[in-house]
Write a structure and sequence with these properties.
single chain, about 170 residues, alpha+beta, N-terminal domain of TfIIb, Nucleoside Triphosphate Pyrophosphohydrolase, 2 domains, two-stranded antiparallel ribbon, about 35% strand, elongated, binds zinc ion
Length: about 170
């Protein structure tokens, strides 16, 4: 399994070597004993609802350019998931959302992302602020359940299915 893209130690710049530690091969530094532990990326996203419709953004970047996804992105170091998802909605769509609850945690299983999906509301007074803020998206739209466009990643369908199931729970 690939351990790292590092060739040199990020701490002391010595060439890394492969070493078995507790039955796992890892990239290690023979000089300062730094060990590279691969870890997943932590991603947050918000299923944002307004009057029964869901807010989606059309991706303007690869992968999955032209398909739709939710507001979201990577958690910054030192940030809580809740703060991160509120920040992402502001950065991407210029809106202040209200988080209702966590829908679920997704990912792993060979992928590099772990996704925390939140259910959120767009208060009516925030509607006039709605605008694409970054070049990451080319369009914004509200969609009813019956008219959802093609979503970018399989995990989005998993999240939507759980979101829908929780509406009637
Ligand atoms: Zn080192």
């Amino acid at each position: 399994m690939p351990q790292t893209n590092f060739i040199y130690c990020p701490l002391c710049a010595t060439a890394l070597i492969e070493k078995e530690i507790h039955q796992v091969r890892r990239s290690c530094c023979p000089e300062c004993h730094y060990i590279y532990y691969p870890q997943p990326n932590l991603v947050v996203l918000a299923v944002i609802e307004h009057e029964g419709k869901l807010l989606l953004l059309k991706r303007n970047i690869e992968p999955a350019k032209g398909l739709w996804n939710f507001c979201g992105g990577y958690i910054e170091f030192g940030e809580s998931p809740q703060v991160a998802v509120i920040r992402e909605a502001k950065e991407e769509a210029n809106i202040d959302i209200q988080i209702d609850k966590l829908i679920g945690i997704y990912g792993g299983e060979g992928g590099s992302n772990i996704v925390a999906a939140f259910q959120a509301q767009l208060p009516s007074h925030q509607l006039p602020n709605l605008a694409i803020q970054l070049e990451e998206a080319s369009e914004l739209g509200f969609f009813a359940w019956e008219e959802l466009p093609t979503l970018a990643f399989p995990v989005h369908y998993e999240i939507l299915r759980d979101w829908k199931a929780q509406q009637h729970a």
